[in-house]
Design goal:
single chain, mainly alpha, 3 helices
Length: 96
């Protein structure tokens, strides 16, 4: 089960990263854009890490506070979830 969840997060993160790059390219070319709702959906469904890295890499949506804060929080949440699934505890974390 852990492998499935980690695989899902990896796939969704790659998809979100690529989508952020594509949308940035479309923005530069004045082409058809990807709706913000779809970017959020990808991030919420497991692609938070990829969406945040894509936002920073492509300098896309960085002026939008909701994206900057929201994608960062999702990336942190998914990062903590990955560490938990891998059995890694951070200093100061209470073990169950």
């Amino acid at each position: 089960m852990q492998t499935t969840i980690l695989g899902w997060i990896a796939i969704m993160s790659v998809w979100a990263f690529i989508t952020m790059g594509y949308d940035k390219r479309q923005a530069k070319r004045k082409g058809q854009r990807i709706p913000e709702k779809n970017l959020w959906t990808l991030a919420l469904l497991g692609g938070g890490i990829g969406a945040y890295i894509g936002m920073q890499t492509f300098r896309h949506k960085t002026r939008r506070t909701s994206f900057r804060i929201g994608f960062l929080l999702l990336a942190i949440a998914y990062g903590i979830g990955i560490l938990y699934l891998l059995g890694i505890t951070l200093p100061g974390m209470i073990e169950a």
